[in-house]
Amino acid sequence: MSVKVSIPTILRSITNNQKLVEVVGVNVLEAINQMDQQYPGIKEKLIAEDQPHRFINIYVNDSDIRFCDGLQTNLKDGDALTILPAVAGG
Amino acid sequence: MEMNRPLTGCTLAGPFNNVANDFASIAASLRYQASMLGLNVISTDEYSNDLSLSFKFETSRTSLVSCDIARWSDASKSTCITENIIQAACGIMSVHGRVSGEPRPLGLQYVSTLTGALALQGCFAAALGRLRGMPVSGSNLSVSSAALLSVSQYLADATAAEMPDSVMFEKASRQTAPPFMSSDGVCFELETLDVEPWQKFWAQFGINSALSGKGWSAFLLRYARAISPLPVELVDALSNYTFQHISEVCARTGMSICQLRSVEERQQDEHFMHDWLQGPWSFEFNPNVRARTDIKKAENQLPLSGLTVIESCRRIQGPLAGHLLTLLGADVIRIEPPGGDPLRGMPPMADGCSARFDALNRLKTIREINIKSAAGRAEIKELVQSADVFLHNWAPDKAAQLGLDYSDFVDLNPALIYAYAAGWSTNGSAESATNTLPGTDFMTQAYSGVARKISQASGTRGGSLFTVLDVLGGVIAAQGITAALLKRHLDNASVKVTSSLLSAATLLCIDDFPDKNMLNSRIKSKSIINGVFDTKQGKLAIECPDLNTVSRLRNVLEIANDLNEIDFHQFLQLLLLTKTAEEWLLILERAGVPVAQVIEDLATIRNQAHLQQQLSPDCYTKVMSPWSFK
């Protein structure tokens, strides 16, 4: 499944400054693994021990993957994967 | 009750009882704060001019330092700065009102309190600068600069070059933002900083994952954008259960809950009277510091230049305190976890960094240190050894667990100022009711009575999603540190200073608490006319604090004197619809009526000519230092 991933500014140094990256994967984890092959180092910025970092939100279209099937959330052609830092607390 | 007060022996003198109406609340808060710091406050018989409040500060080792508080930084503008006028003109109503769909006043003496705190800090800094060899005679500040400082992060969001935050008023969110209401009519806040308790909690009420996820996204928006458009199903679900039942579910799932209490309930707390008499800070002195022969000289025109602050803080309160110290010239070294603070990536971005993050941290030096590792802690100790201030806002007891508490530094650096910007109590674990609650802005608003105060005044169900307490908490933390630095230079004492969101909340409620002969000048009467009005184009805030001002308003608008109050208001509303806010502004300002065009879209602040002096256009609009020194 081919999906487009929006890269937050803070991680663009890893993706050669690209804002949008196209990758293939049947689920979010696969997409991240494939992205990490193209842009080594990005995976560790997003997940650890097969869980998204607490301070990172990953959305498939408008849905936070933690409220779907986490990194196993299925992807379909044309889905948009968005990565956003989270803010909680003041 | 014996309290440690750092500036006992110093004097503050000014015409605090003879100020113009719009300065009365500032003068009252300033006097209270000064008293709590140990200053001998003298109200002089002279009369203040209408445009400013001037006072003098003297220590045993410095001659008089003067401080002037002007209404506006732009000296050509003289409009009265009653609380609601300044909240309207500087965007506070805009941010607070986002959740309601229209600008609304906070209903607190908020800018007045901030102004008092910043003014005192300015004069302490000036005295400190003088002790450190700087030829400074005093400090200046304006009320508008204090107000703008409070919205600086929101303004950064609204004006960032990349993806500007165009949040206007989302009508749909009006009924669904926190706080929540139970079936037995209890209004309450929920809080969790982690997603798991959120998921478990809503599952217990039959909310499916998709809705719970949408709710989580909305819940996170509170801190960044002052809105929280929760799915209505979440709010409805809780309204079917009693507060007791919801509390039990919270206990099982790890969610935190706090009922919105009244100020009267707050006063019944076991430690309340101690907190009130102590003031916003708790000070601990170590007088056994050898006489300092190595007083660092100020290096430039800013009074804290050459002093080093080590800051280990997250989010808003602590970073803002550090930011204020940079604005006074201190070198702030900010400790971030390896890889940097994740909030650096929080959109919208400006030059590769989150605009709102940059607004609070742009002048600091960054050191990435893992404080959880022994090597990291050793690195911090090495930094602190030669520093002047160590500032953190960790959870309670974490400093002791890390071996980075005040007692761990006393031998290492006997002249250190150790500062803790806490959430709840400033006296260890004294406030047991809050021990298990996360010390965040909205929980503290609920617990302290501030949320209830705001709801009563602004007609909303709860407090403000504008981070009222984080900002004031940051200001009083920096103020306490500056007072502690002065104490160190005056008395060769090392100082631990603790402030908190709760102590900031208490400071905001001084009009509601027992008067111990300190605040007899405070103004309890409400303004006669005080509201936000629609015009042909734009909104206008008008505040008439007394009959003379009402009379001026009637005269300039040619409204008959025999109209009763209700008819007068209705007539006024209709009349104001005949011209634009900009046109009315000119007319009413000329007549001496306190008036402001209400900022609705925060980004438009940068177009306001009278605020330009405090703003710096860049990759986002930056708010400049509120102080200048003379």
From TrEMBL, chain A:
SUPFAM superfamilies: MoaD/ThiS (SSF54285). It comes from the Bacteria. It holds the Pfam family ThiS. InterPro entries: Beta-grasp_dom_sf (IPR012675), MoaD_arc-typ (IPR010038), Mopterin_synth/thiamin_S_b (IPR016155), Sulfur_Carrier/Prot_Modifier (IPR052045), ThiS/MoaD-like (IPR003749). This is Molybdopterin synthase subunit MoaD. It comes from Nitrosomonas marina.
UniProtKB/TrEMBL annotation, chain B:
It holds the Pfam family CoA_transf_3. This is Crotonobetainyl-CoA:carnitine CoA-transferase CaiB. GO terms for molecular function: transferase activity. Keywords: Transferase. SUPFAM superfamilies: CoA-transferase family III (CaiB/BaiF). InterPro entries: CoA-transferase_III, CoA-Trfase_fam_III, CoA-Trfase_III_dom3_sf, CoA-Trfase_III_dom_1_sf.
